[in-house]
Amino acid sequence: MEGLLDHSLRDALTRVGGVDRCVSEFIRVTGTLLPCRAFERVVPELRNGSRTAAGVPVRAQLLGSDATCLAENAARLAEMGSAGIDLNFGCPAKTVNLHRGGAVLLDEPETVAQIVSAVRRAVPAHVPVSAKMRLGFNDDSRAEECALAIEGAGATELVVHARTKAHGYRPPAYWDRIADLRALVKLPLIANGEIWTLADALRCREVTGCVDLMIGRGMVSDPGLGLAIQAHDAGLGQLETGTNRSATWATLLPLMLQFWHRVGLHVAARHRAGRLKQWLNYLRRSYPQAQQAFEDVRLLHDPVQVEQWLQQAIQSQSKAS
User: Fold this and answer.
1) What is the pLDDT of residues 232-264, one digit of tens each?
2) Comparing 7-233 with 249-320, is the CATH topology the same?
3) How confident is the chain (321 residues) per 10-residue block, as mean pLDDT?
4) Rounded mean pLDDT of the chain?
5) Which CATH code, of 3.20.20.80, 3.20.20.70, 3.40.50.2300, 3.40.50.410, is assigned to 7-233?
6) Is 204 a catalytic residue?
7) E strands along the chain, which residues?
8) Domain boundaries defined on the chain
9) Which string of b and e fits 94-131 if b means at least 16 CB within 10 Å?
10) Please, where are the H alpha helices in 241-302?
11) Which residues, other chains included, contact 98 with Cβ-Cβ below 8 Å and sequence gap of 6+?
12) Which of 109, 131, 176, 308 sits most deeply, having the most CB atoms within 10 A of its CB?
């Protein structure tokens, strides 16, 4: 999730728990073998055994259309110890698509197969090679063809975002189409799209037949969602998320401060406040307290003032508890 779920937010969310694996923001490959520092800039976890501080594996994601060049970069990532290689066939961004990256390749199943096959051959057998796709570009008429191409090329697993590029992120997600793909391919499928709550997760599983789920914006909005799903799977009942027990506002505030400090290490001062506001904006969906927090920081731009607000918010919450 470029521009949102970077390594700083990965660090915070995996500290909450309930996450089995992460995939990085995409690393664009356009014809050159990137230096190690370029990979470490996007995936600094490579310096920590390809794991977050909480110990969750992080798989580096590549985006591009040059199969040979993607394979060379995948090989370098494998040498650096990446927990796996993920291939992006789902990005709907216009600029990316114009440069033959992301979802536009879903109109070229043969190119998709060439990319997956080249990357699979380039990395050791023990290194997973996964792919993420949407249902298609303008329509879903070639979804089955693309899924079969990815399977036939040797991918380890496939994440399917249940919308086309044309759908963007507008509800609904067409989970029934994932079920169609699951009936066709033997490749392990992971369902993705419009999973905001535990009820959404259970319904998605029911419709798609997939046990495993990829959660992006839903996890940003409710960091306790993964824990709630795990609790349900463990037979602990339908542990509610957001305003309830899986990740309370009181537990989130210190993580927010850690996130803020980490953002300060790699984001220019004039943009730092925007990163916190961006997360708070998502949190408003699940936490009533986030609405007031967002209003408190909305007009703040000075990092010193934001730091002060965070410290005061933690102190106030501690006294209230």
Assistant:
1) 999 876 554 444 457 899 999 999 999 999 999
2) no
3) 85 96 96 96 98 98 98 98 98 91 96 98 98 98 98 98 96 98 97 97 98 97 96 76 67 96 95 96 96 95 96 88 67
4) 94
5) 3.20.20.70
6) no
7) 22-28, 58-63, 85-89, 129-134, 157-161, 189-192, 213-214
8) 7-233, 249-320
9) eebbeeebbbbbbbbbebbbbbbbbbbebbeeebbbbb
10) 249-263, 269-283, 288-297
11) 104
12) 131
- Max CA pair span of the chain: 61
Decide if domain 249-320 falls under CATH 1.20.225.30. yes
User: Catalytic pick from 22, 36, 69, 91?
Assistant: 91
**Residue for token pair 């390594």:** 7
Instruction: Give the pair of three-digit tokens for residue 122.
Output: 């380039």
Closest by alpha carbon to 282, among 77, 19, 5?
5
pLDDT in tens, 97-137: 988 999 999 999 999 999 999 999 999 999 999 999 999 99
